[in-house]
Amino acid sequence: MSSDDNNSTIKPSEESSNTVENSEQPSSSTSESKEMINIIVKTSKEREQFQLTNDASVKDLRQMVSERYKVEPHKICLIFSGKILKDGDTLENHSK
Hints:
GO terms for molecular function: polyubiquitin modification-dependent protein binding. By secondary structure, this protein is of the alpha+beta class. 17% of the residues lie in helices and 32% in strands.
């Protein structure tokens, strides 16, 4: 079992824990200096990549994860670098 397997679990009837990785990529398609961030959400069973702008909120990511995994947003716990992400924060706050 790798250390990645210990980072997150999904429990259908309880809170879901998802580990978030991030890799920024400049976007040349916008005139406003917004960058796209690729977010990799790891669960105990799989990885899924999401792409958002760097000014997107954690709440935006939580909603996308909720739709993808069909789990209510309030049951999802997003963790990045060992810290629980708060809905009011932007992804840019955590990308540095």
